[in-house]
Automatic annotation (TrEMBL):
Protein name: Kinesin-like protein
Coiled coil regions in record: none
Comp. bias regions, Basic and acidic residues: 567-608, 637-646, 661-671, 688-703
PROSITE patterns: KINESIN_MOTOR_1, KINESIN_MOTOR_2
Length: 812
């Protein structure tokens, strides 16, 4: 994942290139107060919000400014897509996302499944572009020291075996874990047309700034314990990335962080190796170290840049914030010094080593170039000061110019190399006749026709001897041909034998190398099998336990069901009992109501009868009064009495009031009190039942003049002065019991003057009862002077006497 340290190029090999800075304004609610304004495609304004009194404000110009609502694809196309294109052409790049917490750095870098950011898009672009042009798996591998190497067929096989082993291990370890890959919805299918003749291997690393880093004198800085993993497909890459993110989230959760507090570095490495299109594989003479064919794209999601004072951090969190700030400060210092050096030509020491992040990417500023910075701005008004700070940093970064290495294009000698390889292959094939099939020239090995039957009849047989000589010569020639063919076959055979012996030795050598590995793998395999058996046993035990638990669960469920049924039945019967009780209560209530209304009707009947009786009596009394006092307006009294008596018995209170008003009028009439006199009348009930008035009643109701204030005027009984009011026709009761009062004055018709001289009042009233009975009613009252100078009588008691002959009483 780290940039390699390459030999510093001479000035003719480099060109200068500025750091490109882009700004992206986070999308916020339109109702929110903001402090960042999009001016045009290159300019942004940061102005103080209305509630902040500040003259600071700033306007900055960048390579491009993305306003709120900018689509993820548009931002990718402008910033990251050219970098991926360069990566596929063998050039490295470095992209930083800088901004305060929650300004959209991670949103821009990763995004979400529905709004994918740089990373998923970059991965998609790489894999769709190299489709069909990938090297064999494990053909290229990381040397674990920031470089890459090419493996031979045999090593590739061994490596594959090792990796498979690792894979089995990791699968066993991660058994049961759910490492699902989010389904990024990438709206565009990115595809870059690449030059012919290369095969590609893709690697990736994910780390954060907390990892250790080491300085390698040969190849530069690289992280310790960072796994460089070959990824073969988009899904593979996303899975790896998700694993890294998950680890980061777990770390953050365990530290109880709410925002990213580490610098996340995601690196994509592409190794492009020329290959021979005739064989479909890499060139045989390809050097093992293929680091120079690799290019990297580093996407760095920096932690929030806010100041410590804003984070309210304390303790460990403060130290952590300090570390984050230190690394960002070092980045700023390096950029400031670089800018200073470039401006003045000075050679100030750039403190790359002061933080891991600058140490890691130093080469990009010094040699490789291709640096881009995306500043994320949260336009919320509360972020005004932080945004100013971010803009200052971005402007400083924009002012620096990086050297960029002009890489020799390996495409140039590609065809020539292919031709050379073809020639070498042909030569090799020619030389290697031993690989040709075993060819035996049967004709050459034939002995020729059998010797003819020759018979010599004399030693100078001129006919036969020449024939024989000819045959023998042919035979010699034949023998020579056979000898040559035999020699050829012997030589070929010996060569083949030698070759196979050599191969055998080679194979034995390799076997000796492989044997321990195979043994190791077999051992590992045995161990895994044992593990597997142990786990299977455990699994069986667990399954058995699960079965038992299932049975228990079923029993418990059945029990629960039974209990539920019982409970339901009980509540059903309870509901029935309740309903029955309710019905019974209703019946009882109805009966009671009927009984009450019956009694009420009876009582009403009774009281009606009594009223009728009283009316008759009242008629008699009226007759008496009309006889005695011609001046008394009996007709008015009668009307009053009739009115009151006709009043329905709807309200006891109204009835009482009316009764009281009637009796008051009557008493006044009887007492001869003129309208100018004020008389306080006791309530009818008080008179009838001789009950004292209820305390505080008059105050409560606030009605009529109160007499309580007169109570203190009352004198002792012995000092009472009585006014005895006896109408003319009152007969002397004689021996009948009489009230014990000494009347100051006896009058038939009392006047105001009479009342003023006394403090007690007694009215003797008589009426005829049934037969010859005379009913005498004694009405007592207290006389008070009123505030206004009048006099009032308050009736306090009533006594009734019925007199008649003894025979009448006997009859009764
Ligand atoms: N341009 C945008 N459009 C819509 N939503 C955005 C945008 N930028 C950020 N967001 C939303 O704002 C929230 C915070 O964004 P994000 O996590 O990317 O901030 P951050 O700068 O990475 O914060 P931290 O430093 O804590 O990691 C997220 O819910 C994200 O979806």
């Amino acid at each position: 994942m780290r940039p390699k340290r390459v030999k510093t190029p001479s000035s003719s090999d480099v060109e200068m290139e500025p750091v490109e800075v882009f700004a992206r304004i986070k999308t916020v609610s339109p109702t929110e107060d903001t402090c960042v304004d999009f001016v045009d495609e290159r300019t942004v304004d940061c102005k103080p919000p209305p509630d902040v009194v500040s003259d600071k404000g700033s306007r900055a110009t960048f390579t491009k400014v993305f306003n709120q609502g900018a689509a993820q694809s548009a931002v990718y196309d402008e910033i990251c897509r050219p970098m991926v294109k360069r990566l596929l052409k063998g050039k490295s790049g470095l992209l930083f996302n800088y901004g305060v917490t929650s300004s959209g750095k991670t949103y821009t870098m990763t995004g979400s499944p529905n709004q994918p950011g740089f990373l998923p898009r970059a991965m998609e672009m790489i894999f769709s572009s190299i489709d069909g042009h990938q090297t064999k798996e494990f053909r290229v591998t990381s040397d674990d020291r920031n470089g890459f190497k090419l493996l031979s067929e045999t090593d590739m096989m061994t490596h594959r075996l090792e990796k498979r082993n690792e894979l089995v291990h990791s699968r066993i370890a991660s058994r049961g874990s759910t490492n699902t890959v989010p389904n990024y919805n990438i709206d565009e299918h990115y595809m870059e047309s690449l030059s012919e003749g290369f095969q590609y291997a893709v690697f990736m690393t994910y780390c954060d700034i907390y990892n250790e880093s080491l300085d390698d004198p040969e190849r530069g800085v690289y992280g310790h314990n960072i796994t460089v993993k070959e990824v073969r497909s988009l899904e593979d890459a996303l899975r790896e990335y998700e694993r890294g993110l998950k680890q980061r989230r777990m770390a953050e959760t365990s530290l109880n962080r709410t925002s990213s507090r580490s610098h996340a570095i995601m690196s994509l490495h592409v190794v492009r190796i020329p290959y021979d299109r005739n064989t479909g594989d890499v060139f045989e003479d390809q050097v093992e170290d293929v680091t120079s064919f690799a290019s990297s794209l580093h996407l760095v999601d920096l932690a929030g840049s806010e100041r410590q004072s804003r984070t309210n951090a304390a303790g460990d969190r403060l130290r952590e914030a300090g570390n984050i700030n230190n690394s960002l400060m070092t980045l700023r210092r390096c950029i400031d010094i670089l800018r200073q050096n470039q401006r003045t030509g000075a050679r100030g020491n750039v403190p790359y080593r002061s933080s891991k992040i600058t140490h890691m990417f130093r080469n990009f500023f010094e040699i490789l170039g291709g640096v881009k910075l995306v500043i994320c701005l949260n336009p919320a008004a509360s972020e005004f000061n932080e945004n100013l700070d971010v803009l200052n940093f971005a402007e400083a970064a924009q002012a620096i110019v990086c050297k960029r290495e002009i890489k020799e294009d390996i495409e140039e000698d590609f065809t020539a190399r292919e031709e050379q390889a073809a020639m070498a292959r042909a030569k090799k094939n020619k030389r290697r006749t031993i690989f040709q099939p075993w060819m035996v020239n049967e004709e050459a090995l034939a002995h020729g026709p059998p010797l003819p039957c020759v018979e010599l009849f004399s030693c100078d047989d001129a006919e036969m001897i020449p024939q024989l000589i000819d045959i023998i010569r042919q035979r010699v020639e034949r023998r020579e041909i056979i000898g040559e063919e035999t020699d050829r076959l012997t030589t070929t055979f010996r060569k083949k034998l030698n070759h196979f012996e050599r191969e055998n030795v080679d194979a034995l050598g390799k076997l000796r190398i492989l044997e321990p590995q195979v043994e190791k793998i077999e051992g590992e395999n045995d161990r895994l099998l044992k593990d597997n058996r142990r786990l299977e046993k455990k699994n069986r035990a667990l399954m058995e336990a699960q079965r038992v638990y299932e049975l228990d669960k079923k029993e418990a469920e059945a029990e629960l069901q039974a209990m539920n049924n019982k409970l339901e039945n009980e509540s059903k019967s309870k509901r029935q009992i309740e309903a029955a009780a309710k019905r019974k209560m209703e019946d009882e209530r109805r009966k009671l109501n009927m009984e009450t209304s019956r009694k009420l009707r009876e009582a009403e009947e009774n009281s009606k009868n009594r009223l009728n009786l009283n009316e008759a009596k009242m008629d008699q009394l009226r007759n008496i009064l009309s006889k005695n006092s011609p001046r008394t307006p009996v007709s008015r009294v009668n009307r009053e009495v009739e009115r009151v008596e006709r009043t329905p018995v709807s309200s006891a209170r109204t009835r009482n009031l009316r009764k009281r008003s009637v009796s008051e009028t009557r008493m006044k009439e009887e007492a001869g009190i003129t309208p100018g006199m004020s008389v306080k009348t006791p309530s009818a009930s008080n008179i009838k039942e001789n009950r004292p008035p209820r305390p505080g009643r008059s105050q409560e109701r606030g009605r009529g003049p109160t007499t309580d204030h007169l109570a203190h005027k009352r004198r002792s009984k012995s000092a009472d002065k009585w006014l005895a009011h006896t109408p003319k026709e009152t007969i002397d009761p004689g021996t009948v019991l009489q009230p014990k009062v000494i009347a100051k004055k006896n009058v038939h018709i009392p006047s105001v003057g009479d009342l003023k001289t006394v403090d007690q009042y007694l009215l003797t009233h008589q009426e005829l009862g049934t037969g010859n009975q005379v009913k005498t009613t004694l009405v007592k009252g207290e006389v008070y002077g009123t505030r206004t100078g009048g006099t009032q009588v308050r009736f306090t008691g009533k006594e009734k006497l019925t007199s008649g002959t003894s025979s009448e009483f006997r009859r009764k």
